[in-house]
Amino acid sequence: MAQRGIPAAAAATGPTSADALFSPPGAAALTRLSAVETVRARILLSIEHGLLPTGSRLPKLATIAEGLEVSQISARRALESLVVDGVLVRRRGRGGGTFVADAPPRLEDTSVGAYRADERAIRRLIDQRLLMECALNYESALVATPEQCDELESLLVESESAENWLEHHGPDSRFHRLSVEISGRPEAATYLVTYEALLKYFVPYPMHELETSWREHRALIDAFRRHDGAAAIAITRTHVSALHREMFVALPR
Q1: What is the DSSP string of the chain?
Q2: Percent of the chain beyond pLDDT 90?
Q3: Is 69 left (phi over 0), alpha (psi -120 to 50) or beta?
Q4: What DSSP string runs through 90-129?
Q5: What is the pLDDT of residues 1-33, one digit of tens each?
Q6: What is the rounded average pLDDT of the residues 98-119?
Q7: Separation of CA 86 from chain center
Q8: Residue 169 and residue 153: Cα distance in Å, rounded?
Q9: Residue 19 near residue 57 (C-beta atoms within 8 A)
Q10: pLDDT tens string 55-93
């Protein structure tokens, strides 16, 4: 039986734009993971895919916590658990810190399993984010002030000057939040629920892969300055659609 409000043909062939519009938020279908579990999963996946090479030093605890949007207590507990598991090692003295083990074991970790099991819900969330972000950025382009555009520019410059993905993520996240809040639309709050649900599934990128994202953000600021709503939609569509290919390196291609 077709879902209410969705044509039968669409329901039979899988998720569509109508499915994303009329169905409950995809966040409801995600596995409920604790903050500690999300940090474990993201570090393990980063190691698995070579984003954190063996023997490499992890950033400072505060940077990890801010980049993964968890408390420092949660980040510390996750790191400590991975030290116990032999995935990470602690070294003292000058040049010390927390490092990826030279030969970390491959764990059958339940948190990583949950990330992979959530693939369908995650991809649906991307579609929901795409629809909402296009609409809100269109509205923002119509009303953005020069001062708001300057603030977006400052966040972009901060992101571009980051030394690693974890440092980049903070200003990047604030950029996305501000870009939709400029619209003044009450629907921005609903969008942020979807956006924040997706944040828990970001696995750090290699920095060179962010260059396209930065160019798109700069183009979006230019569209806002020109009050060009159509351009804002086109840029947003390209930017968010790319998440299906680039964001979830832990998911099947």
Answers
A1: -PPTTS-HHHHHH---HHHHHHSPPGGGGS----HHHHHHHHHHHHHHTTSS-TTPBPPPHHHHHHHTTS-HHHHHHHHHHHHHTTSEEEE-STT-EEEE-SS------HHHHHHHHTHHHHHHHHHHHHHHHHHHHHHHHHH--HHHHHHHHHHHHHHHT-SSHHHHHHHHHHHHHHHHHTT--TTHHHHHHHHHHHHTT--PPPGGGGHHHHHHHHHHHHHHHHT-HHHHHHHHHHHHHTHHHHT-TTS--
A2: 47
A3: left
A4: EE-STT-EEEE-SS------HHHHHHHHTHHHHHHHHHHH
A5: 333 333 444 444 454 544 544 444 555 556 678
A6: 87
A7: 27
A8: 15
A9: no
A10: 988 988 998 898 888 899 999 999 999 999 999 999 887
In this prediction the pTM is: 0.77
Single-letter code of the amino acid located at 48:
E
